[in-house]
Design a protein that fits this description.
heterodimer, A: about 425 residues, alpha/beta, Aspartate Aminotransferase, domain 1, Aspartate Aminotransferase, domain 2, five-stranded mixed sheet, 13 strands, about 15% strand, globular, disordered N terminus, B: alpha/beta, Aminotransferase_I/II_large (chain A)
């Protein structure tokens, strides 16, 4: 068969920038590390790299949620297309649910349903991106913001989270970074990857800083209410009248169902500034041409939110507290690792790697690859979230596995410790 | 000061490109038409404008599909994140399903799971978009292609489908339109909006033309197997050894579950051209930074694709045949409407409006608006799909409702007939 015309196919060369943009995602880095697992190691692989405890029986979601899905499917009422913004009962139930923690009432029209919080990030970045504009994102942070911003040609500038101050936002650096093209800043609270909870006063200062700079706040609250230390979770929307807030959330973390792909964007903006500046219009426009969450999962949402008991939530936060404590205590015995701030929320903690204590480990990725190979434990190298030579360790796993893993990490450390 | 100079002070603005890109969607045009409905009963609204029969009991999905979802949810095995290309059992199930109608076997690696066929379209258009590139789209067509192309800055050129030839592709037009920047052509088979089914010989010519031009074929087969006339459904992948074919499809139409948001993109490319030119890597890159279909629906897929009985498929096809006949026969009785080609597949038929036979109706939009107002019947003006002064009529509703609706259209046309 003639191949002579094969040179013509190169008109559809794949786009190089696209590949670069997706280069760093948590999943892709973990995939690379996992390629180094030793197949002849009989021990179970302990995954402390990702943020998904759903595989562990102790973290199984509540029956209420499963029942709600089954009920919605069997009703045959939700097999249809949904409106791009989401179905009314789902929007209403999220508005009511979130309003419980706010000093004002959200309207169902403030709620936009997305296929998970990752999709909410995609929609927001797409809607906000304009030529020459930039956003401020935390370091360490969540790399999907950077990936989606690169894809939309939106510049990202990074402000630091201060490890010595419980990973608070370095507000001086925020002010220094912002210019007249800055349109928004991102905060992630409860913190991923750091496991911190921002205090009320600090969040108020963030809002005031944003207002001074004329920018909105993107509040990534995907781990909302997963707070088990002394600081309570405060939604950024509380400060929505100081500066407009776009809140992202989902059922993925609190209900341990990341595979259900149901998230939301909420405009927490009692002064209606987002409407006036056409942000709301852009959001709605993009929602018309982007993917939607499954209609019957939307249909199940009111039942999920209404009927899930406090017992379930308490069970989850208690398990996370125990795991966080075990992790923090266990890491104290591993001298090449320092944990600057005991985790008090979300599912992971950020720890510093002291390479000078180690022989022949060149950096965080090298540590993680060798750890996977020698001990079948997966942790995330900090470069993937913006802090080279740190590590993100997820503690949200079955307790006995966590204990086992901490033991193996200690063994690994001793094996590679620099001889005195 | 609370508000002050709010408009100038805030640095964020909406994204104008989005507003333009999403301007014409079928839903948008239908909403505008429906805004004119005045009656509030007791006569029911007859919806002949949509593409979603799931609300009608006679079109309810197969019980086995509902049960597959319930089983997947209750198993608690699918609450976690999926791999971005899709979970292996789902990829295998789709590869097997599609391979049944191909002269070769697709590999699971050729299959990428997406949030409905919509996201599969988004994926391929995004991947192909490069500065100055253009794609060839059918007219009439499905406006989502234009919307996503506009958003990705991918230029569009339209070739005609020929009503006098059963809506075949005007291949001379395709050759005339293509230039060195053309990267692909799209065909929709079975046809939306025309209701045609392309013949084997014609598809082979399409493949040969695409090969000659060095472009790939996007085969939108979302209505696969929904054929009820004399032409059988032939998947474009049959010609995957002549030209690379990207098939996009989903369970939405054949199983009548558009709300489940489960689709796929399949690479039919026996000569490995898509891999060689980086298209496959770009597809994976796109999927890495976008959201995924719900994991448990992926988990249910083997059961849905493998266990749905032929009796369900036959039932649906028989209903479609019945309603397509009703539609075609009744349209013959309406002088101002001509149907050039009896529908053989999908859920729709394209009919020409003879304005010369009508009084005070200035175009297709005016016809539809007045029809909605006077008769509470909703049909889609052809301008929404690229053919002004034509109409797209959906026949996929309860047969008795269809009779009622067509009766009202006849009454409307008599009332507005030009006096002789």
């Amino acid at each position: 068969m003639a191949n002579g015309s094969s040179a013509k196919w190169d008109t559809f060369q794949g786009k190089e920038e696209r590949n670069a943009a997706s280069g760093i995602t948590v999943r892709s880095v973990l995939d690379e590390i996992m390629e180094n697992l030793n197949p002849s190691d009989q021990r179970v692989v302990v995954p402390l790299g990702h943020g998904d405890p759903s595989a562990f029986p102790c973290f199984r979601t509540t029956d209420v949620a499963e029942d709600a899905i089954v009920h919605a499917v069997r009703s045959a009422k939700f097999n249809c297309y949904a409106p791009p913004v989401g179905i009314e009962p789902a929007r209403r139930s999220i508005a009511e649910h979130l309003s419980c923690d706010l000093p004002y009432k959200l309207s169902p029209d403030d709620v936009y349903l997305t296929a998970g919080a990752n999709h909410a990030i995609e929609v927001l970045i797409t809607a906000l991106a304009r030529p020459g504009a930039n956003i401020l994102a935390p370091r360490p942070g969540y790399p999907l913001y950077e990936a989606r911003a690169a894809f939309s040609n939106l510049e990202v500038r990074h402000f630091d989270l201060i490890s010595e101050k419980g990973w608070e936002v370095d507000l001086d650096s925020v002010e220094a970074l912002a210019n007249d093209k800055t349109i928004a800043m991102v905060i992630i609270n409860p913190g991923n990857p750091c496991g911190n909870i921002l205090t009320f006063n600090h969040m108020k200062k963030i809002a005031e800083t944003a207002r001074k700079l004329g920018i909105l706040v993107i509040a990534d609250e995907v781990y909302d209410h997963l707070a088990f230390g002394s600081n309570p979770f405060v939604p950024m929307g509380v400060f929505g009248s100081i500066t407009p807030v776009l809140t992202l959330g989902s059922i993925s973390k609190r209900w341990i169902v990341p595979g259900w792909r149901l998230g939301w964007i909420v405009t927490a903006d009692p002064s209606g500034i987002l409407q006036k500046s056409w942000i709301v219009e852009s959001l709605k426009s993009y929602l018309k041409i982007t993917a939607d969450p499954t209609t019957f999962v939307q249909g199940a949402l009111p039942q999920i939110i209404k009927e899930t008991t406090e017992d379930f939530f308490l069970k989850i936060t208690n398990m996370l507290r125990e795991a966080a404590d075990m992790c923090y205590d266990g890491l104290k015995e591993i001298h090449c690792i320092t944990c600057p701030h005991k985790p008090e929320g979300s599912m992971s903690t950020m720890v510093k790697l002291n390479l000078s204590f180690l022989e022949d480990i060149s950096d965080d990725m090298d540590f993680c690859i060798k750890l996977a190979k020698e001990e079948s434990v997966i942790v995330l190298p900090g470069f993937a979230v913006g802090l080279k030579n740190w590590l993100r360790i997820t503690f949200a796993v079955e307790p006995s596995m966590l204990e086992d893993a901490l033991g193996r990490i200690k063994t690994f450390y001793l094996r590679h410790a620099k001889k005195q | 000061m609370e508000n002050g100079t709010a408009a100038e002070k805030w640095r964020f603005r909406g994204n104008e490109v989005l507003n333009t890109a999403s301007a014409i969607t079928i839903r948008g045009v239908l909403n505008e038409v429906m805004d004119n409905i005045e009656e509030s009963g007791p006569r029911p609204i007859i919806p002949l404008g949509h593409g979603d029969p799931s609300a009608f009991p006679c079109f309810r999905t197969a019980q086995i599909a509902e049960e597959a979802i319930v089983d997947a949810v209750r198993s608690a095995q699918f609450n976690g994140y999926a791999s971005t290309v899709g979970i292996p059992p789902a990829r295998s199930a789709i590869a097997d399903y599609l391979s049944k109608d191909l002269p070769y076997k697709l590999s699971p690696d050729d299959i990428y799971l997406t949030i409905g066929c919509t996201q599969a379209i988004e994926a391929i258009l995004t991947v192909l978009a490069r500065p100055n590139a253009n794609i060839l789209l059918p007219r009439p067509g499905f406006p989502f292609y234009e919307a996503r192309a506009a958003y990705s800055h991918l230029k569009v050129r339209h070739f005609d489908l020929l009503p006098e030839k059963g809506w075949e592709v005007d291949l001379d037009a395709v050759e005339a339109l293509a230039d060195e920047n053309t990267v692909a052509m799209a065909i929709i088979n079975p046809g939306n909006p025309c209701g045609n089914v392309f013949k084997y010989q014609h598809l082979k010519k399409v493949a040969a033309t695409a090969r000659k031009l060095g472009i790939l074929v996007i085969a939108d087969e979302v209505y696969d197997h929904l054929t009820f006339g004399s032409s059988p459904f032939v998947p474009m992948g049959v010609f995957g050894n002549i030209v690379p074919v990207i098939t996009v499809g989903s369970i939405s139409k054949r199983w009548i579950v558009p709300g489940w948001r489960l689709g796929w993109l399949a690479t039919n490319d026996q000569n490995g051209i898509l891999q060689k030119y980086g298209i496959v890597d770009c597809i994976k890159g796109f999927l890495n930074i976008t959201s995924d279909p719900a994991t448990f629906i992926q988990g249910a897929l083997p059961q849905i694709l493998g266990k749905t009985g032929d009796d369900f498929f036959s039932k649906i096809v028989n209903i479609l045949r019945e309603v397509a006949d009703i539609c075609y026969d009744r349209i013959e009785e309406i002088p101002c409407i001509t149907c050039p080609s009896k529908p053989e597949g999908s859920l729709f038929v394209m009919v020409k409006l003879n304005l010369a036979l009508l009084e005070n109706i200035k175009d297709d939009i005016d016809f539809c608006v007045k029809l909605a107002k006077e008769e509470s019947v909703v049909i889609l003006p052809g301008v929404a799909v690229g053919l002004k002064n034509w109409l797209r009529i959906t026949f996929a509703i309860e047969p008795s409702s269809l009779e009622e609706g067509l009766g009202r259209i006849k009454a409307f046309s008599l009332r507005h007939a030009k006096k002789q």
